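Entry 12.
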Amino acid sequence: MKLLNIFKKPKQSISGTFFSLSRESNREIETTFLSGSKIYNSVNAENINSLIKDNQETLEVENISDGYHTFKELYEFRKIYNATLFNMAFKSARWDVHKSKKHFDGEPCFGGNYFIVVAMLPSGQITNHYPIEDWDLFKISATDKAKYPYDGHTAQDTLTRLKNLDQ
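Predicted 3D structure (tokens):
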């Protein structure tokens, strides 16, 4: 199994038995591993997510990979795809799209270090937040605050709204 160095400080590691999965059956071969004082007896998404959350101070989470792409690469792809969609929608005036450093209630996005992009689609809004340094990637209208209150959409709602755009 190929392991990336995902630790912020040299020579740090998570001790214990690492695991591998059989590609044919996806069954666990070795199942015990240790992280600090926690012992995990099975390798599953919940335990891996807990491991990442519990070790955020020492892990470089952005370098965790599925073997093809790191989190950092995937978020960069997502950001560029999203900027492209919003920029094209703005140029064509197909949907109402805008960006703002403040939410609808006037509060700065995450302490002022982020901004929100909003697209009002026929099926409802989609939104994302990005670090302020990415502001110029979105060549769309800027408003003093987001034009619409958050409609409660989930990640799944956003995916459904995007999938149904041209239907």
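Annotation: Residues 112 and 134 are 13 Å apart (CA to CA). The chain has three helices and six strands.
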